[in-house]
Amino acid sequence: MKNTVLATIQPVESLVVPSSLDGRDGSNRGVAENSQLAADNDLDALRAWLSNYADTKTTFDNYRKEAERLLLWAVVQLGKPFSSLTHEDLLLYKTFLTDPQPASRWVSASGGKYARSDERWRPFNGPLSPASQRQALIILNAMFTWLVNAGYLRGNPMALLRQRAKRSAPRVTRYLSTSLWDEVKVWVEQLPLESEAERKYHARCRWLTTLFYLQGMRISEVAGGRMGDFFRRLGADGQDQWWLETVGKGDKARIVPASPELIAELRRYRIANGLPALPTRAEELPLILPFKGTARCLSRSAVHDAIKGIFGGAAVWLRDKGPEFADRADELDRASAHWLRHTAGSHQADGGVDLRTIRDNLGHVSLNTTSLYLHAEDDERHRETVDRHRMNWNGNDKK
């Protein structure tokens, strides 16, 4: 039977599973009349689960990859239906993920990535890292839970696997301190303004850093944003409030307060580019204007390169100030657009902005994520420990 199945190592969209292994009679199948799915075999059930994520490409691709790997492993390696997998089988699968063997069957040649339609395609490009193994099990557990809730399976064999205690998430470290952020701003302000090209470059650098820092936006949100996403409405006090509408992770829309300072910078940027001071609600111009050509949105990579250019320029400028600035320059060389988002969250949290406000502005789902931006309390703890907890070997170090 296994030799018959070997030829079916192919993506789920073109996979054909022998009827004896398709799960119609799987030992873990739920009661048919209780099922909320039309699917009567494992492959169709998995496709039903995946259809929930069809509108988010990255998530869909990752979920399909893990479901596909487990289904193929069950049928090809074990010679049993996916819906007959047991706790013991999944223990074996955990080990398999660390080194998929035989490699000729499971791993693409030389670890290369091939199109899913290519006959050289394989489910793996090599052994999975510990982080990727954990992610795979998390996704599969969610899949099994959904299939149980849908009535397709009787139980979730993943739920029996021993879970390691969750470690507390580390504090965010990829952000710029206030002093280093000040250096970046000084570098932007000293850029030359003699030619039109220099003035436009200065205007873009100032607007980019302002937009990322004040709004805490993701690079995809900045790259895909339009000037018409700015809008204003009357507040309870009768005063105009400016807001910026954006679409974030998972296609979730949110509105972020736009401060008078940000609107002043928006005016400055638009005027520098020969535009009216404020956008209309229907305006389709991108948030970041290209230097030449059609006024269309920049790609994510173009925005990434623009921010890296600012940090790189500031790093060179710092090194020119003297060797004592080398470490700070090195940190800027490592920084990216996402560092600016972390910097925005960290500076707000350390400045006393309510975590719920930061959560909603940055588009976080949980306050647990937002709390990772708290650093000021660590600084104070460090100062107090150093100042008050001493050895005093000589007895004369007391303050």
Automatic annotation (TrEMBL):
Ranges for domain Core-binding (CB): 40-148
Renumbered residue ranges of the record's region Disordered: 379-399
GO annotation, cellular component aspect: cytoplasm
Domain Tyr recombinase: 171-387
Magnesium found in the keyword field: no
Pfam hit, one: Phage_integrase
Keywords: Cell cycle, Cell division, Chromosome partition, Cytoplasm, DNA integration, DNA recombination, DNA-binding
PROSITE patterns the record matches: CB (PS51900), TYR_RECOMBINASE (PS51898)
InterPro entries (UniProt xref): CB (IPR044068), DNA_brk_join_enz (IPR011010), Integrase-like_cat_sf (IPR013762), Integrase_catalytic (IPR002104), Integrase_recombinase_N (IPR010998), Tyrosine_recombinase_XerCD (IPR050090)
Entry GO MF terms: DNA binding
Entry annotated with the keyword Cell division: yes
Superkingdom assignment: Bacteria
Main location per the UniProt record: cytoplasm
GO biological process, alphabetically ordered: cell division; chromosome segregation; DNA integration; DNA recombination
Protein name (record): Tyrosine recombinase XerC
UniProt source species: Paraburkholderia caffeinitolerans
Gene coding for it: xerC_1
